[in-house]
Structures are given as structure tokens and as C-alpha cells.
Amino acid sequence: MRINLLGENNNKANALTVFVVTALFCFIGGHLRMPQELSLFWPVNALLAGMIVRFPFLHRSGIYLISYLAMVLNDLVFSGWASQSFTINFANIIFIFIVASLLIKHSMPVVGLRRPGKALQIFPACLLGSLLSATWGTLAEGATIGENFLPVWSDWVSEQFSTGVLLLPFLLTLPARFSLHLSSYRLKKLLPAVAVMVSIIAAALIDGAGSLTFPLPALIWCAIVYPITVTSLITLITGVTEIVLVVNGVMNIQGNDELLAMSYLVSARLGIATVAISPLIVAVSMDAILQLNKQLALRANYDFLTRLLSRSGMYEQLRQMDDSAPGNLHSAGVMLVDIDYFKAINDSFGHDSGDAVLEEIASRMRSVIGDQGMLCRFGGEEFVVVFFNHERAALFQIAEQIRHAIIMRKFLLQGNTVGITVSIGIASKTRPETNRVETVNALISAADKRLYHSKRNGRNQTSPLVETESEQPL
């Protein structure tokens, strides 16, 4: 049984889910408080903003009101705040609303973040949300414009901004179905993650303001090796670890603060937020390159016109089948389908009409074959269909279905109805002793001879191997 906690038309479930998530993470954030005036980590704002961006149907006033009430209720029960909780928690809603509005406005689905330009939109959105949220929150705390305003305001800004830029990339790139195959991460692939840990230890030993950036090279290495979701998670863990080390005095980044009164925690948060952009941009760039490579490979393996497998694509699939499941073949069969008088069609109606004929014939063949076999445009006006574990009689029946599907409906070419036929040659082999690639190669050669037999005998017919021929080794 599958339970959908969020759905576009499931308002009650949406409201309950948002309320529970808000209350739960407010409770967690409250227990992460350190001896600072504000919490060290406040994940609920970034989490809710990420939820709303991923599910834009949550971007409604009612959902924000439910989140606000959950925050207020948490403070009344666990923090002992009274009227102040109503004003301060409005600052959290400001951050959530601004970040979600800006990212939804710029079309920020999971796939969209994989573009470097889209990834960059997280930073100005979080910065603007942090500035406005901090201004309201600081005033709500009773701070006045003066000496005590800047420390409180900077604490708000750094907290909201650093949490947002650390959490949102991970939340927005996390696939709907996330599975981590640990077996694929060999020792060599674990080296970037190990390098991050070593660099954090080195930063703690060396100290100084610049020590916060020590993990940056290792994080960029992670971005090159790992997927964007894994890189975002490692960046999040690194940032949280460095903040904890700074707060507990393990990393000493204190410098001369005579020019600007700013706590070391604020400095740590802002520095880490700035560092976070580098591995993220590299990650989305690498992801874009990988996607481009996949598209190029796809174009090489598929025929652009008919959207069928190309010759190279057919052999690539056969090789993959040999690698994943060698042997286990009861029989193999090949059909070679050739359009009759195709050159005359091109000469009479033009190459555009010839292309339209190829597309339509591919479509009709696909509707007949379905998932029974592997359909490929072999070249020019020739198509190849590969079957495994089909009887000879079944192959002949399918070939005749293909032929009749093309005959039964005439083609409309430049206002003229034209009857088009195909000739088909079939070859099959029971219990082939070679791998799939070699078997299909041999069968194509044999089917080509049967295709020639169909052409010679008047076209528009199917010629299978006769029994005496089929018993001979290919």
C-alpha cells in the first residue's frame, strides 16, 4: 500500500503533513540551540521552502498560515514564549515565502537546478529572504537601531542564509526515488570524501580565518566525481561540521574585530555559505556534461527520423544483453524488411515524402511488433527486426502482419493516395552456439538472401528459410 502525503487535490493531507513537518523540525531546531541568542541551526525554514518549490501546489496562503501556527504552537509549548512568538515566527514565514516565491517564479523543479544558471538563483533568493527576515526578526526581538542592532541582525542573516544555501541544493536535487548503490562506490571513488575529512581535520589543527576554506579543493573533487545530490549532501555535512567545530572552539578563526563587531559564529556562517557555491556550480556543470554525453550517445544509437534503434544502437543493445545474460537462448530470428520501389517514391514525390513514408512504416511496424522484438532502421529503406525465443511459425505470422499493416492503408503523398508494399526475408536459428551479436550477424546475412528471393519473385511477399536451409549451420 502506497500512502501519498502530498497531492495537488488532497488539501487535508497537505495541511496535516506541513503542520507535522513544521512542528517536528521546530522542535528539533529548538533542541539544537547553543548558548547564542538564536539557534545554531534552524532547518525548518529551508526545509519548508524546499518542499514548496518541489510541490508548487503548496504555495498557498493557507499552507503558510498552517506553518506559522505550528511554529507558534511549538514555542508556546516548549519555549515558554507568549506574545513574542507571534511576532518572531513571522520572520520565519517571510524567509520561506520569499525563497519559495523567487525559485518557483524562475521555474525551479528538480531538473531545473541541474543547470548552473538555475543553481545560482538559490543564493540571491536566500540572501534576500535572509535580509528581510532578519530585519523583522531583529525588530521583533526588541532590538533598536543602535549598538545592539547589528550583532542581533547579523546573527539572523548568517543563520538563515547559511542554512538555506546548505540545505536547499540537497533538497531540490534529491530524486523522488533515491537509491544509493554502495557496491558501485569502490575504494577509489571514496577518496574525495576521505579528502574532505582529512581537510577538515587539517583546518582544525591549523586554525585561522582561512582554515574554513581548506575543504574547498576536496569538495570540488567530490563535485567532479559524485552526482549532484551526493555532492550537495557532502557539502551540507561539511558546513555543519565546521560550524560545530567553530562553536566548540576546536577551530579558532578569531581575528581582529576592532573594525567591525561581529561574532566568530557569524563569520563562520558567512564564510561557509560563500564556500558552498563552488562545489555546487562544479556539480551542476559536470551533471550538464554527463547529460549532454548521454544525449549524444542516444542520438548515435537511435535513428532521428523514425525514432527506432540505429544499426549501431541495435548492436550496442545486443552487446549489453550478452554482458548481462550470456547464453540462455532457445532460438533467435531476424526479419529483414525492405520497402519496394522506394527510389521511385523519392524520384516522383521528393525526399520529404520519402521521409514521411519511412516514418509511417516505422510506426506501423512498431504497432505490430510492440515489445516482442527489437526494431531497427538498418539503413536506407531497410529495417531489421530481431527476435529471441520465438518459433519459426510465429516469426512468419508476425512478418505477414507487418506486410498486411502496410498494404491495408494507402499513403497520402502530396495529395495522392499511393499503395506501398514491402518485401521480407526471414532467417532463424534454434539453439545458437555463438553470442547474440555473432548470431544476429549471421542471421542478417541469411535473411538478406531470403529478401532477395522475395524481390526476385515479384516483391510484396515474405520468404522464410525453408526447412532444408534452416537445418544448415549459419
Automatic annotation (TrEMBL):
Annotated catalysed reactions: 2 GTP = 3',3'-c-di-GMP + 2 diphosphate
Gene Ontology molecular function: diguanylate cyclase activity
One GO CC term, this protein: plasma membrane
SUPFAM superfamilies the record matches: Nucleotide cyclase (SSF55073)
InterPro entries (alphabetical): Diguanylate_Cyclase, GGDEF_dom, Nucleotide_cyclase, Rev_trsase/Diguanyl_cyclase
Biological process (GO), any one: negative regulation of bacterial-type flagellum-dependent cell motility
Compositional bias ranges of the Polar residues kind: 459-474
SMART domains referenced in this protein's UniProt entry, alphabetically: GGDEF
Known pathway: Purine metabolism; 3',5'-cyclic di-GMP biosynthesis
Protein name, as recorded: diguanylate cyclase
